[in-house]
Amino acid sequence: MSKKKTTECDIKDPSLAPAGDLRIQWAAREMPVLKLISNRFAKEKPLKDIRISACLHITTETANLALTLKAGGAELALCASNPLSTQDDAAACLVMEHGIPVFAIKGEDNETYYKHINSALDHRPHITMDDGADLVATIHKDRGELAKNIIGGTEETTTGVIRLRSLESANKLKYPIVAVNDAQTKHFFDNRYGTGQSTIDGITRATNILWAGKRVVICGYGWCGRGVSMRAKGLGAHVIVCEVEPIRALEAVMDGYQVMPLLEASKIGDIFITVTGGLNIIDREHMLAMKDGAIMANSGHFNAEINIPALESLTAEKKRIRSSVEQYTLSSGKSLFLLGEGRLINLAAAEGHPASVMDMSFANQALCAEYMVKRGKELKRRVYPVPEEVDKEVGKLKLKAMGITIDTLTAEQRKYLESWELGT
Ligand code: ADE
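Above: inputs. Below: predicted complex with adenine.
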């Protein structure tokens, strides 16, 4: 029997594979760093006989990562890291054209989401790859017996790293994890330019609104908030930032944005975007204060930033009016609009970050998987940074792929920088 027929999977529609293949190849054109790694992996096979369970957004960019890991000799099983982010054609292509097991269907309910995580875990991984730490949390809560075979893991996103650090502080982390998110070549680019562009893209695709002249309220001024603010401003929006951390708030002020508490901003905002990683950021009191027609979207990892149960409790009538837009008519008669069910709007209504930034994020993932195989046994049950040499290498390769050369220090300049003697 052919491999295509026997690959284990739960996907929407295998006949989407050819369309997925074309889109995966399109993304690959913008992923030259990953391609270089893939070519080396194909020769050296650093992941030979290594089983990887990966819980990632199943997109064309993730498909290119999966093909790189497979080229390196890994046996992979993939599941989604969000119920709404799966690109069903990419999933179909991985299964049908490449024989990689995928368990992910766009729009899956919570029960199926966890069933799929468990299917990926049935693969008995040596390495876990996670985006948000749901896979690792499932191992720690329900499938602890798997940990004895696991060399280590990687984590893609800020929210996941925070959860894992909390496990580490409680002394409960069962194996070492590398925080890919914290690499400079990840968060400076993916979180800022990736989230910046793809959030605007998701909201635009969902609503077709004109940004120019709108009052856009951004909750959170971390790397993602900075990116979204910058892009909204670039489109002519009036940006208001709400932040709880004083230095970040100060930075937002000096970057030229208006800064105020969310309750005040609620009265004047047209569009509200949460990118905090926190809980119930937009709450009942804010919704009550909002103007008729206000639009709410989330681009943080979980759908916990907009208090949807509170919104439901205020609502007299709910209606889907476009594919990612729900109209909530409150008992007062006012309408509020929620995009993408409060899930990360860049993946729910658009295609996530462009391939060019995922190139660096996933180059880090691939190199950290290789690092885990080589060095994982020496590591403790801790959350580790991406090795500096990996981060630097990814940056260098990206510049090279972009055809950009830079200066180097002369011997005299290097000596000057290294010495303390030379002063005024
Ligand atoms: N996270 C954000 N954008 C993504 C993408 N395009 N692929 C995978 N993960 C992502």
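The mean pLDDT is 96.
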